Amino acid sequence: MTAPSTGAHRVAVIGDVGGHLAELRRELVRLGADEATGELPPDLTVVQVGDLVHRGPDSAGVVALVDRHLRGGPGRWIQLVGNHEAQYLAAPAFSWPERLDDGTADLVRGWWADGLMQVAVVVAGPGDRDVLITHAGLTAGYWRQILGAPDDAVRAADALNHLIGDHDPVLFRPGQMLTGRGPELAAGPLWAAAATELVPGWLGAGMPFDQLHGHTSLYAWNERRYAAREEIARRTTLDESARHESTKLGGARIIGIDPGHGRVASPSWRAWEPTGSR
Asked: What is the pTM of this model?
């Protein structure tokens, strides 16, 4: 799946929302949405990386807002699945103190059943380089073992999205965060931990395209320290006001945009807006 290209067109990629409706609305207004109606400007497509729900005070409100965009303006809002949405698409994989109400959970299941929620999308980033966007990132092991090592981002996204349905368990393959064991360098695109599974697996592996993810960060923003080892930290640049990180891996890069919202929203964060995107 690729974001639509209609001449001069902006793309904004929003990280994990985590039930913070007011924060999501504020960012959409900054991007040009109508403050009263929420309508998106005609030159904008929004990609959201998943984990819309849990943690914050209004997961139901977040899902309702996204549902209006998905069903009211097809192609203008591209919704990716996160591990927290997956809690309602299969047997829950972990215990979480909040649960969505039945009506809200049904909306999320409806997106999955109707093809309105995907695993991956590709946008053109700076230099017109394709950027593969998933919730947690595509690990090198998963790329080789499950996808057969596609050599470009569009083929990788198509392969991931074709796993939806009969192969959901493969899509939901866990990593260290869920199992509690050591790093799994073939963790799936909903669960890979950036600091121990995603980025380390691609070191020296020749990643054939750029990537962008939410889910976890290499840098602990609130503690102002790296969670990744020194070799990765040296390759990484930070935008602390946006809560974005970019790690160079040869000629490619991995960009993380999880703002780290908890019960309280992060004080400063922004969507990722690639220059000259389509």
From this structure: 0.95
